[in-house]
Amino acid sequence: FELESSLRSALALQQFELHFQPIINMGTRKLHSLEVLLRWRRPNTGLVMPDKFIPIIEDNGLIVPIGEWVIRRACEQSMEWRRQGLRPVPLAVNLSPRQFMHKGLVPSIRRILDETGIEPSQLEFEITETALMQHGDHTLDILDQINAMGIRLSIDDFGTGYSSLAYLKRFPVKKIKIDRAFVKDLEHSAEDRAIVSAIVALSDSLQLSVVAEGVETEGHYYLLQRQGCQFAQGYLFSRPVPAEQAVHLLEQG
Ligand code: G
Ligand code: G
Ligand code: G
Ligand code: MN
Ligand code: NA
């Protein structure tokens, strides 16, 4: 394929960039952290979104070096912002299943922490339920190692995958991100309200933080807050933005 061969050289040609989307504390309406989202600036095409290329690079293994670049670049960016005197907020990086299972992951994270000097508490990883459920005990081992480094872990797209509550309890996970599928129709769907309410209750009883994704309206915000959801992410606050614009989010607090 043409797309695949372009992707093979994209890293060396420095065509990838990171965008950032705020996660807001629902109590204070202030910035809590930023999710890191990869974009591919493809010549003659423009900005390519991850759903167009992540599945390809997951398939062909390029996710491993590209994913490592994302982690490194996010850590470097965090340190640059810190040197500029901006308020430090954690950056949450997505890990896809193949990346998560690669045996080089933990050593590469260690190296990146060492080389960039980032505080582990300033880095988080988001992993989907599906990725977590695929590999049994090995999964727990990797999660424990990442957790032992002081990096927080969250479960992304919660509620859409195959999940086991027993595992949820065993995993050293600190945060659940409610998939935006359950938020979208919150104002009109009693069923979705019940699901969200159950996820919030589950999170509370397991002492996990809970983030709602896809918060687009004040109605969403109101209902989520009433249900005790702590954090929110979505177009109501900001779309994912390039680093230059993320600086303004950090300046505003
Ligand atoms: O950026 P956007 O909102 O379009 O993201 C679409 C999907 O791509 C999300 O599921 C997100 O988790 C995934 N994604 C975005 N950036 C990265 C990345 O750096 N690494 C991995 N593995 N997935 C990413
Ligand atoms: O990692 P995850 O699958 O959660 O990736 C986040 C994705 O959700 C990105 O593609 C991001 O652009 C998208 N997104 C973030 N906020 C909103 C929102 O409010 N509405 C919708 N429809 N998508 C959103
Ligand atoms: O839309 P405006 O330019 O005012 O947004 C400025 C900042 O406030 C952006 O960082 C945006 O993410 C954030 N923001 C957007 N909507 C709201 C809101 O309803 N309340 C608060 N507190 N911040 C918001
Ligand atoms: Mn995510
Ligand atoms: Na998600």
TrEMBL record:
Signal peptide region: none
Residues in EAL domain copies: 1-253
Name used for this protein in its record: EAL domain-containing protein
Organism placement in taxonomy: Bacteria, Pseudomonadati, Pseudomonadota, Betaproteobacteria, Burkholderiales
